[in-house]
Design brief:
With 388 residues, this protein is an alpha+beta fold. It has two domains: 76 residues, no CATH class; 198 residues, no CATH class. Helices cover 39% and strands 13% of the residues. It has a four-stranded antiparallel sheet with strand order 1-2-3-4. Helix 2 packs across helix 4, helix 3 crosses helix 4 and helix 8 packs across helix 9. The N terminus is likely disordered.
């Protein structure tokens, strides 16, 4: 047993070295630097920060490099590191209405206050491989902007609020402090604040699939993207010694406000309801999927049918975390020798009992089956014969 343990330890240490070699690749090719990953793979960095629950582009780039580009592994690494950091306090709620915007669009109104700002997006690209990038082509310089973006742009949903056509977006009186899912276990019934916190660091692919399902009939909503924003927002921390909040930095954020039709009921008139998404970095797909999932999980409280998978709050929250899901799936690679042997012995005993209870069936099974004669197959012709 001791020899087996030592042999396994040596194999594991060797696998570390093989992983380093695999990750590095061809040593004749220059090694990727963290600055290159951070600056030239910003969308991958954004996802790792969002689902790793830690805003730090440098550490996210390091995690991506260490994980050889595996984003879920990089998210796991960043979360693990996050647990070692000291907690100084909680920041003030971020005011996304004052974001310094790089992109802001709405699919509900053509003309919105401040205008449609396309910014950097793949929405209008042709999805054709650009082989000019092989030669290290530098982007063309941006033309000077005719009009600078406004310091803050009014929300598109404000147009609907003015006519009372969308539910209010106000913090209710006595609203409790949101739970911290990084320190407290998830409990049910889960408040909307807890659900949004869970979704903010949920797996993008899972949310994308569930959001997609709601649009294919597995849900009861018809969503519109009222507004999508991408930019930077200031983060403030209240300092008790000073008695006021101070700005400690800024973060890149993507925000999505979805509105969905609501037929109303005996107590409420027909109106639009909201689904909300907010994530670190630039990730519209995740923010939109989060907003769709948020709205789907509100079906029960709005008196709608809640029989679709995306309406099931426990299902959504328990299965949306990619670190936990990856752990459960990949633990099957670990040794299960004892469990398997127990199942194997049980299966043998059950088969023996079944054979003893029905010896006639056992005798039939022991008679060799006569195979039908195999029809003769023609010999394949040679190339010369075929040509002849």
């Amino acid at each position: 047993m001791y020899v087996a343990v030592k042999g396994g330890e040596r194999a594991i240490l060797n696998s570390y070295q093989m992983l380093d070699t695999y990750r590095r690749g061809d040593t004749s090719v220059p090694e990727l630097t963290l600055a290159q990953i951070r600056e030239q793979m910003p969308l991958a960095v954004s996802r790792v920060m969002a689902e790793g629950s830690l805003y730090d582009p440098h550490l996210a780039a390091l995690a991506l490099k260490q994980a050889a580009g595996d984003q879920i592994e990089a998210i796991f690494l960043l979360r693990a590191y996050r647990t070692t950091l000291a907690r100084f306090g909680y920041t003030q709620p971020v005011d996304t209405g004052t974001m310094r915007l790089q992109r802001r669009i709405s699919s509900t109104f053509k003309d919105v206050p401040g205008g449609q700002v396309l910014g950097p997006t793949y929405d209008y690209t042709q999805r054709l491989l650009d082989f000019s990038l092989e030669a290290g082509r530098e982007p063309a310089p941006l033309p000077p902007s005719a009009e600078p973006l406004a310091a803050s742009m009014p929300r598109v949903t404000g147009l609907l609020e003015a006519e009372e056509l969308v539910e209010a977006d106000e913090v209710p009186a006595g609203d409790p402090t949101p739970p911290d899912l990084t320190r407290e276990p998830l409990t049910f019934p889960a408040s909307r604040a807890a659900r949004l916190q869970n979704l903010a660091r949920a797996d993008e692919g899972f949310l994308l699939s569930m959001g997609y399902s709601t649009q294919r009939g597995y849900g009861n909503s018809h969503p519109f993207a009222a507004e999508i924003r991408y930019g930077t927002a200031e983060v403030e921390l209240f300092v008790e010694e000073l008695g006021f909040a101070v700005t400690i930095g800024e973060v890149e954020l993507t925000e999505c406000q979805m509105v969905s039709q609501f037929a109303g009921n005996a107590e409420e008139a027909p109106r639009f309801t909201r689904g909300y998404g907010l994530v670190f970095g630039y990730n519209e797909r995740k923010a939109m999927s989060m907003a769709l999932a948020d709205r789907a999980m509100r079906a029960g409280e709005l008196g709608e049918a809640a029989d679709a998978p995306a309406n099931d709050i426990e299902f959504m929250l328990y299965h949306s975390d990619n670190v936990e899901a990856s752990g459960f799936v990949q633990h099957l690679k670990l040794p299960h020798y004892v469990d398997f042997q127990a199942n194997l012995e049980l299966l043998r005993r059950l088969r023996a009992e079944a054979d003893a209870a029905n010896p006639a069936a056992t005798a039939l099974q022991s008679v060799p089956k006569v195979q039908p004669p195999t029809p003769p197959q023609s010999r394949p012709q040679s190339q010369e014969e075929t040509l002849a």
